[in-house]
Amino acid sequence: MTTNRQLRSTADNRELRLWKVGRALTVTFAAAVLVAGGIFYGLVVLLGFTGIDTTEKLDASTLFDLVKLSFGVVAGAGALVALVVAYRRQRVDEAGAHREATRLHTERFSQAIDKLGSASPPVRLGGVHALAGLADDAPTRDLRQTCIDVLCAYLRLPFSPDPGDPPDGTSLTDEQREAHEDKSNRYREQREVRHTILRLIGDHYRRPQGTSRSWQGHNLDLTGASIDGWLDFTGATFSDGNLDFASATLAIGRQGDLHCGQILRRQGVFQQRKVLPWRHTGLGQGHVL
Asked: φ and ψ at 37, to 5 degrees?
């Protein structure tokens, strides 16, 4: 199943771009002069100023006013310089904080990936929860999408199917019985990890868009994934992103149920592609807009 939506633009490009100090000060002073000149000209026009009497002598009071005006101009220039410097410092601090958040995210991401690739099932489960939590705390949409992509990629990985029970009347040697039990254990361990990922995906897409820990608006690529358990997307909303179940396969039987009640999506095409038979889809309970 596929939904195609128009990807909305993101504001995660936070590369620091600052003018050189000289250029910034020049532009600031030029803008200040233009504004001051405009105000002065407007006042002259409004007050009906006719001209300057050059025959008048410069008295002490006028000279003192000129001195005060000169100091005011100097103080204003200093304030402009301080404003430019403070703005640049603020931008640099914000960029530094963003880099630090990205660095911490990268460290946590590497640790979560290591856990996800562990041979121990409990460690892999911890990696799944760590990666989901990392997606919740991601400083940018792109970094959150990366975490979601890794979880989806794990579901797309091939895995050994359920070996089932030995055929009735089959006599197995101790070695064959041990090998069969080992396959069954590995299958159950892997299935538990995969089911945890599916449950976390459903939980995050049920949260209203724009709220904490909501993954709405992000892409979900389960192309070709093999889902051998209960997939419950009841109450989930998929909007402003790509949801792709193309060529996904479902196991037949009790573990092959797909429940998609109350799936909401907008501006997309909902198509069923190569999907193996399942007992009950529940699609009649959903809304496709």
From this structure: -65, -40
Choose among 80, 60, 157: nearest CA to 116.
157
Phi, psi (degrees; rounded to nearest 5) at 225: -70, 145
Per-residue DSSP letters for the chain?
-EE--PPPP-----------HHHHHHHHHHHHHHHHHHHHHHHHHHHT-----TTS---HHHHHHHHHHHHHHHHHHHHHHHHHHHHHHHHHHHHHHHHHHHHHHHHHHHHHHHHHT-SSHHHHHHHHHHHHHHHHH-SSHHHHHHHHHHHHHHHHS--PPP--PPPTT----HHHHHHHHHHHHHHHHHHHHHHHHHHHHHHHHHSPTTSTT--TTS-EE-TT-EE-S-EE-TT-B--SS-EE-TT-EE-SSGGG-EE-TT-B--S---B--S----S---GGG----
| Among the ranges given (32-36, 61-65, 255-259, 276-280), the one the predictor scored with the smallest mean pLDDT | 276-280
For residue 87, give both structure tokens: 């703005």
pLDDT score recorded for residue 147: 96
Q: Answer yes or no: are the C-beta atoms of 218 and 140 closer than 8 Å.
A: no
In tens, the pLDDT along 181-204 reads 888 888 889 999 999 999 999 899
> What predicted TM-score, i.e. pTM, was given to this entire model?
0.61
Spatial contact of 201 and 230, defined as CB atoms under 8 Å apart: no
